[in-house]
Amino acid sequence: MVRESRHLLMTVAPGASWIVFFLVLPSAYLMSVAFMSSGTYGLPEMPLSLESFRRLAGFGFLGWSPGNLYTLLRSLWQTLVATGLVVAIAYPIAYHISTCRARWRPIMLLAVVVPSWTNQVIRTFGWMNLLAPGTPLSSVAEALGLVAPNMGLYPSNFAVTLGLVYNFLPFMVLPLYAAFEKLDTAQVEAAQDLYASPLRAFRHAVFPQTLPGLLAGIVLVAIPAFGMYVIPELLGGGKGMMLGNLVANQFAGSANWPLGAAGAILMLIATFIGLFAMRRIGKRLGGGEEVVI
Amino acid sequence: MSRRSLRRTLTGIWWLTLLFLYLPLAVVALFSFNAANSAASFTGFSLRWYERLMGNEEILSAFANSMILAIVSSVVALGIGCFIGYGMYRHRHRKLGWLIVLIYLPIVLPDIVFGISEMAFFVQIHRLTGFLQPGLGTMIIAHVTFQIPFVALIVYSRFVGLDPALFEAAKDLYASPAKRALHFMLPTIKPALISAFFLSFTLSVDDFVISFFTAGPESATLPIYIWGAIKKGVSPEINAVATLMLAAVAIVAIASLLFSRRRPV
C-alpha cells in the first residue's frame, strides 16, 4: 500500500504541483488582490478593503454611475441571446447531419468544426471586414433602414452577438450530433403509431433524448461566452464592452488591479453557478443520467 | 410539414450555415490578393502583400515565436501529462477527486481569468525575486498549464481502452518495470501521445488571450502581432498573414480527413 501510494505520488506529483504552482496559486493571489486597495499605477496595496467591490457596483469618486452595471447586464444579455441563437441553428444542423448517409457525416462534421480551428482573432477580423461601413452587407442594412447611414454594422452590439454565435456554433453542434446519433428511433415510431402530432412526438420522444447533449452544449457555449474578451473588444466598440473587457482594462491602460480582480471573482462565481446548475438540471431531467462535461 | 419539405428545409439551413461559417474566412483570403490599399473594395489580383510579408521582420519573428512556443510547451506538457494519465489509470479505484478537480480547473477557468491570474502572479514574482520576467518563458509556463489536462485525459482514456490482461501478461513474462515501460507501455500509448502532441500544438497556436497577457515586449506571437496590427489600423498585410494561417489549418483538416478515411474511427 505504501509502495502504491509512492507510485501514485511519483506519477501524479509533477503535473499536479505544476498546476498548483502555476494556476491555483496565481488565481488565489488574484482573488486576494480583490480585497486590497488600489495604490500607485493601480497596483494592489495594503490595507485590506472592499473598495473594489463598491467600484464594481458603480460607486466611484463622483457618486454612483450605471456604467459597470450596464456592462454586466450586457454580458448576461449577450450570453443569453447568443446561446439561444446557437441552439436554434445547431439543433436542425445536428439533426440534419445525423440523418445523412454515414459516409458523409464525418466530412459534414469536419466542415462545421474547421472554422473553429482557425485563430479567434482572425475569425473576428473576417467579420470586421464583412460588417464595416461601405461593405455590401452594411449597405443592405442601411438601405433597409436597420442602421444609420454610413455607420455600418460594426462596431455594435449586433456585431458582438453575431461574432459570439459564429464562434460557438461548433461547440453546440458536436454534443447535439452525438445525442442525435444514438437517438432511439423506436420511441419516435411508437409515438407516431399512437397518433402523436409531430410536435408532441418531438416533445416527448426526441427532445428528452437530446437533452444531455443540449446541456453539455450550453455549458460549452454560455460559460466561455460570458467571459469573452476578443470579440467585444474588436466588434463591440466602446458601447459593446462585456465583463471580460472590464476586467482586462483594469490591468492595462486605466489600471486598477483590485477592481479587475473583483470582476474576475464575479466571473468565476457565474462560471461555477452555471456548471452547478447544469449538473443539477441534467440530473433531474435526464433521469439520473450524468451530463458529460 | 411533409417529410420531403422538411428534408428540403434542412438542406437549405445546412448550406446557409456553411455560407455563414466560411464567408468571413473567404473574405480574408480574397482581400489578401487585393491590389488596392483599401479593404473596402477589390480592385484587382496582386501578390504584393505576400511579397511585403517576406521582408517584414516583425512578422517573421512572431512566426518563429509561435513555433518555439508551440513546440516547447507541447513537449513539456507531453512529458508531464502522460505520467498523470498513467497515474490516474493505475490508481483509478482510489478516491482521486482532488486530482480530477485540479485537472479540470485549467479547462473550466475562463481564459481571461486564467491569463490575468498568471500575469498578475508573474509580475509580482518578478518584482520580488527577479525571476519569471514576462516573455517566452512565462508564455511557455502558461501554455503547459492549459495543455497538461488534455494530454493527461487523452493518455488516460487510451489506457482505459486497453485490455487489463495485457498488463498482467507483461508482468508474467518477468519484464522489469523499466522494460515494461519501454517495450510495452510506450508502444501501446504511442497513438495517444501523437494525438496529444498535435492537440497541444493546435491549442498553443490557437491561443490568443492567455498568450497576450503573459507575453513580454519581445515575445509577440502571430496572433498577438495580428491583434496589434488590427488595433493600430488595418493593414492589408494582415490578410496575407491570416490567409497563410488559414491555409495551414486547411491542410491539417484535409490530412485528418484522409487519415480518418484510411482507418474508420
How would you describe the overall organization of this protein?
The complex is a heterodimer of chains A (293) and B (265). Chain A has 293 residues and is mostly helical. Chain A has a single domain (74-285), classed as MetI-like (MetI-like fold, Orthogonal Bundle). Chain A has helices at 2-33, 51-56, 67-99, 105-117, 120-131, 136-143, 157-181, 185-193, 198-226, 230-236, 243-249, 257-285; strands spanning 36-38, 44-48, 59-60, 63-64. In chain A, the strands form two sheets. In chain A, strands 1-2 form a two-stranded antiparallel sheet. In chain A, strands 3-4 form a two-stranded antiparallel ribbon. In chain A, strand 1 (36-38) and strand 2 form a beta hairpin. The longest helix of chain A is centred in the first third of the chain and has 33 residues, at 67-99. Chain A is globular. By secondary structure, chain B is an all-alpha fold. Chain B has one domain (56-262): MetI-like (MetI-like fold), CATH 1.10.3720. In chain B, helix 1 (3-31) packs across helix 11, helix 2 (48-54) crosses helix 11 (237-262) and helix 4 (97-108) crosses helix 6. The model of chain B has no long low-confidence stretch (mean pLDDT 86). The interface between A and B is large, with 74 and 79 residues.
